[in-house]
Amino acid sequence: MKNKDYIIENIDINFKKVVFLKPLNLSKGKITELSEATVTVNIVDQNGSQASGIGSVLLSYPWAWPDTELTNEACDDTLRMVLKKIIEFIDCNNRFLNPLEMGIAIDEQLDDILSSFELNIPRLAGAICVAPLDAAIHDAWGKLHGKSVYKMYTKEYLYKDLSAYIGNIGNGIYPSDLFLEQQNKSSLIQHVVDIGADLDELYSSITKENIRSLKIKCSGSDPLSDARQIQEIYKIAKSAVQDGSLCLSLDPNESYTDIESLIELIDRLNIDSPEIYDSIQYIEQPFLRTVRFEKDQLQVISERIPLIADEGYTHVSDLPELMNEGWSGIALKTAKGMTQSLLSYSFAKISNKFITLQDLTNVNDSLLQSASLASHLYLSTQNIECNSRQYLPNEKYFVENILPDFIHTSDGTIRFDKLENVGIY
Q: The whole model's pTM is what?
């Protein structure tokens, strides 16, 4: 295809409050409500053909900006202003060759945009603000061509291979080369188990929905207490699972302060409960996102159980250093942006690293985007966190009202065969 460019004609943005049915507990506090940011982008090509794309995200400041001294309302207002500022940049730079190029252009300006607020806004918070706009641009691009974007991340449409974005390991490779040949039709739902969860309620959820995959939150304050909590949860869950199979992941949400404490936890599980130890697929971001380690320092853990970086990276350029430290792989989140998700996946896949896809309490279009991405990728675990069904089962927010049977709770799966496969959805 001859190089062609596109012009973004206009961008609309809408914010609405999303109230959680029950709090979602993180190590830094509870989430009770957030703003959903929805961005609509209209593009036109050189022939005058037009298309509209949409993207959304919950502006989760407790996750992306946990150490701020601002009030919740001030944090929310600030992230709304950051997104508007990013859109101002697009208004002045509205021509692009493909969405990856535009995503990179936005990313290159993000630090300057954040510093203009003089509030020490973390880059992860900025990435969340980029995400709905980035998704909308990718979506519009695919819809203009009447195709799934996953069939368009090729030489025909991108012109540059991955080496332009992730270095020499991407020579001669395009993102679509790394996708599944046949799109997955379904995946297990990963059910979140909070610290102090009601175990009777957990038993009921597992039996009702046939849940077979759990993400267990850990406090990090006492490894032995965490081990006991995991053992109690596993005992209840195992008794409720219909076919006896159960897989776990552990999510301390950055609460472990040192390697030795995490080793104490996994040693205790290995000694006392080898069945539980063997069922753990990975441990997600146990250490503070800002902590850096020496070369191969984390291998003492990752050689036993995969150790996955989440909040610890915001950009594909962070990954070589993390892998050098001994992290096993990454947790993809579309809330960090479609462009960065594609590039991070590509780096990890080429490097033969562990890859999982995680949630940010995705609702509506953001849940569809995340599910569609998962359905095309080689993931190391065939389960997807989908916690909106736990915390936001409200008809105003829940995607099941848009796409009936998308979340098939009677057999504990999320189904991809209901997706439209045009644009990013």
A: 0.95
Query: To 10 degrees, the CA torsion angle through 418, 240, 279, 245?
Result: -60
DSSP letters spanning 195-224: TT--HHHHHHHHHHHT--EEEEE---S-HH
Tokens standing for residue 368: 């569809």
Cα 383 to Cα 222, 336, 371, distances in angstroms: 28, 20, 11
Let me know: does 35 contact 16? Beta carbons within 8 Å: yes
Query: Which pLDDT tens digit goes with each residue over 152-194?
Result: 999 999 989 999 999 999 999 999 999 999 999 999 999 999 9
Give pLDDT tens digits for 108-141. 999 999 999 989 999 999 999 999 999 999 999 9
Would the CA dihedral through 390, 392, 395, 401 be positive or negative? negative
Region for 285 from its dihedrals, namely left if φ exceeds 0, alpha if ψ lies in -120 to 50, beta otherwise: left
Q: Where are the alpha helices (DSSP H) in 303-337?
A: 319-325
In this structure, are residues 227 and 263 in contact, taking their beta carbons and an 8 Å threshold? no
pLDDT tens digits for 30-72? 788 999 999 999 999 989 999 999 999 999 999 999 989 999 9
Looking only at the bridges linking them, the beta strands covering 280-284 and 307-309 are parallel
Asked whether the beta carbons of 59 and 35 are under 8 A apart, the reply is yes
Q: Residue 424's closest CA among 181, 132, 157?
A: 132
User: Running DSSP on this structure, what letter comes out for residue 148?
Assistant: B
Contacts of 294 (CB under 8 A, 6+ apart): 325
Q: Find the mean pLDDT for residues 265-290.
A: 97
**Sign of dihedral through CA atoms 98, 357, 283, 63?**
positive
DSSP letter assigned to residue 48 = S
